[in-house]
Structure formats: C-alpha cells, structure tokens
Amino acid sequence: MFDLKFARRLVVCAALALAVLVPAGASYGSAETGTFPIGDGVPATDPIDLSFTCLGPGAVGTITVVESGSGHFTENGPPAFGFHARGSSTQNYRMDFVDGRYVIGVSQFRFSFNATGDALIGDAFEGQDHSALYDSSGDLLGPVTVHDNGHVVYEDLNHDNEPDAGDMIKVTLDNFWVRCG
C-alpha cells in the first residue's frame, strides 16, 4: 500500500509546531496568535508502492518531497479553551520507480482545524495533484492524476485544555487512487 506519511506530513508538522508555539502562560481570557513554518526545505524520502494502480507492477520505489508553506494559529482561554489553525503547503515531489519510470509533480494542500476543550476535533482534507510520468530516457509518457482524501483528528490526551507535545494528532487516509492518462 502507498505510504502516505509524506503526503500529509505537513499537518503533523503544523500541529507539532503549534504545540511548541502556543505559550503556556497566556493570561486569563486572552487570545494568543502567531504563525508557524511548514517544511524546512530539506528533501524527505520515503518508500512508495503504486503497483496496485494503473501504473502497474513496476511502480515501486521511492518518493522524494521538498515541502514549504506557512500557517497561522489563534488560541484563547482559559477559562474555555479554543484553538484554530490554518495554513497551506506546497510539496514538490519526484517518484522514482524500479522499472526506471518516474513521476514529477506538485501538491498543494490547505488545511484548517478547530479544537475546544479536550474534545476530539476532526477536519477533512482532499487532494488532487496533476503530475507527469516519464520513461527511463526522460521521455514524457503522459499525465498522472493522484487523488486522496482523509481526515485529521486532534485529541488533548492529558485534558489540560492546552496543545502539548504529548497530545495526539492523527492523519488518516480514507481513500487513495491514481488515474493515468
């Protein structure tokens, strides 16, 4: 199955960045706002298996992604905790397959989510990337469209109404498909 940790890593990075950036000592009843970077410009490589798609059995290999973007957060409380984050990211990627073919593409992703108290808060995401498939000689074989959708869930594990490093941010892929041509 396709390893999607690269595809939505930004949501996890954003959530972790928020946990670090939200000051624990906010005054009573005040709102804290700030921005956070997404991605560090360093290429990340992960295994990929798209052999179950229209690309066929040779579509196993690695994907290299460079991500950049930014986000904004607003946190208010106490007494009631409210948290909102939004941002966008661009992921430039290259998939290299064992049969010599490769895909070059760009993924753009926007997200936002809200949390109140220690409730589980979810947000859906959907992506559609238009990429190009090349043979081992660099000749264009045709377009490839990658679709995915899923959801993000935040849970305040220690119920302190603050985003902490130990809190759970879970990204779940619900559907993934590739269309060739």
What keyword list fits this structure?
eight-stranded antiparallel β-sheet, mainly beta, disordered N terminus, 58% strand, 181 residues, 8 strands, 7% helix, 1 helix
Helical proportion, percent range? under 10%
Judged by helices, strands and strand pairing, the structural class is: mainly beta
Count the helices. How many? 1
Strand content: over 45%
Task: Write structural notes for this entry.
The protein is mainly β and 181 residues long. It has one domain. The protein is 7% helix and 58% strand. Strands 1, 2, 3, 4, 5, 6, 7 and 8 form an eight-stranded antiparallel sheet that branches. Strand 5 and strand 6 form a beta hairpin. The longest helix has 13 residues, at 9-21. The protein is elongated and about 60 Å long. The chain starts with 8 loop residues before the first helix and ends with a strand. The model is unreliable at 1-27 (pLDDT under 50).
